[in-house]
From TrEMBL:
UniProt KW S-adenosyl-L-methionine keyword: no
InterPro entries tied to this protein: Beta-ketoacyl_synthase, Ketoacyl_synth_C, Ketoacyl_synth_N, PKS_Beta-ketoAc_synthase_dom, Thiolase-like
Domain of life: Bacteria
Protein name: Ketosynthase chain-length factor
Similarity field: Belongs to the thiolase-like superfamily. Beta-ketoacyl-ACP synthases family.
Keywords associated with the record: Acyltransferase, Transferase
Biological classification of the source: Bacteria, Bacillati, Actinomycetota, Actinomycetes, Pseudonocardiales
Acyltransferase in keyword set: yes
CDD domains in the record: CLF (cd00832)
């Protein structure tokens, strides 16, 4: 990984995000983008300080949803961070993840359809809502002609996209890939959709709405934002003189949970073990875990059980920086990977905020950052319905 960029509710840009995350500064507040007082979910992680007009030309603003504007700006920053030359030798691909698509754009155009008539609907509605639009718009803006694709696996999709980008490099399909995920579905239509899942907190006080692993946990809160990474073949990166290497994707695995009511075990522990095998690392080599942190009692319990099964009780430090951003669907995994890379660089784990009473068998980093030597970390992501993804990141 030679380039990275992040946009989150508690920080726009990698440096601002990391400063806020180490400080325990939350980006979760009462929803301000529209009047949410009549909705069961009233708080979210919204990106407050992003002026798309400063980063993108007007022609792109008229044809894109907020999630695509975030993705386009982040793509510019990640490519600049990697210092990829315009005439880079080899194919440059794009592989992103999405879960909701351009919800806000779609809502606006449906309002025009029913309120003003079909002739008022934007022609850009044909693709601005679509899951693959970020891949397409990034490819066009940067003239990238390598492999292009999109993965749709909910919260797990962002990690799956990064892992598939690494596999593309190993297969020799391409020499560089821009990968990650972004979401921006905090709008009336998006809020109605996520509120029906039964996994969202209805607590109106943002301080107590999202408490992963706490005995008071009542659900998660939605968020927007995400991250993009430049992945490239190590030999090719050395040949072109890449100025920095943020870290390495060492292993990955994805599993499905059994159907509800089955007596079979959930698939998260199996995903962790398979990711460690893919990375050729023993259990003891993992120095920390960036948790999925669902924020519901049953799913948090399942994650604690999986970690205890693989690592033993309090066998590895665990953190959940998404406690400061909310759950960003496919943007959460890539944002956690950025946090993991920065943790590896600085030798420090960010805290989990809000949570006070975590299970005794979980060594959860609370209140303050924890400094410790880090060489390999595990990033987890799950989606209700059965998706599990585990990614091993090394220094």
């Amino acid at each position: 990984m030679t380039g990275m960029a992040a946009i989150a509710p508690n920080g726009v840009g990698v440096d601002d995000y990391w400063d806020a995350t180490l400080s325990g500064r939350s980006g979760i507040y009462p929803i301000s983008g529209f009047d949410a007082t009549s909705y069961p979910v009233r708080v979210a992680g919204e990106v407050p300080d992003f002026d798309a007009g400063r980063h993108l030309p007007p022609r792109l603003l008229t044809q894109t949803d907020r999630m695509t504007r975030y993705a386009l700006a982040a793509a510019d920053w990640a490519v600049a961070d990697a210092e990829v030359p315009p005439d880079v030798d080899g194919e440059f691909g794009v592989l992103t993840a999405a879960a909701a698509g351009g919800f806000e754009f779609g809502q606006r155009e449906l309002e025009k359809l029913w309120g003003q008539g079909p002739d008022r609907v934007s022609a850009y509605q044909s693709f601005a809502w679509f899951y693959a639009v970020n891949t397409g718009q990034i490819s066009i803006r940067h003239g990238l002609r390598g492999t292009g694709s999109v993965l749709v696996a909910g919260q797990a999709g962002g990690l799956d996209a990064i892992a598939e980008a690494a596999r593309m490099l190993r297969r020799g399909t391409t020499t560089l890939v821009l990968t990650g995920g972004f979401e921006a579905s905090v709008c009336p239509w998006g809020l109605v959709a996520c509120a029906t899942t039964g996994t969202m907190s209805t607590e109106p006080d943002p301080r107590w709405a999202y408490l992963p692993f706490d005995e008071r946990a009542s659900g998660a809160v939605p968020g927007e934002g995400g991250a993009l990474l430049v992945l490239e073949d190590a030999v090719a990166a050395a040949r072109r003189g890449a100025p920095r290497v943020h870290g390495r994707i060492a292993g990955h695995a994805a599993t499905f949970d059994p159907p509800p009511g089955s007596t079979r075990e959930p698939g998260l522990a199996r995903a962790v073990r398979a990711a460690l095998r893919d990375a050729d690392l023993p259990v003891g080599a993992i120095d920390a875990v960036f948790a999925d942190a669902a924020g519901t009692p049953d799913r948090d319990r399942a994650e604690v059980d999986a970690l205890r099964e693989v690592f033993g009780p309090r066998g590895v430090p665990v953190t959940a920086p998404k406690s400061m951003t909310g759950r960003l669907d496919s943007g959460s995994g890539p944002l956690d990977v950025v946090a993991a890379l920065l943790s590896l660089r600085d030798g420090v784990l960010p805290p989990t905020i809000g949570t006070r009473r975590a299970p005794d068998e979980l060594d959860l980093v609370l209140d303050e950052p924890r400094g410790l030597p880090l060489r390999a970390v595990l990033v987890l992501a799950r989606e209700p319905g059965g998706f599990n993804s585990a990614l091993v990141v090394t220094a």
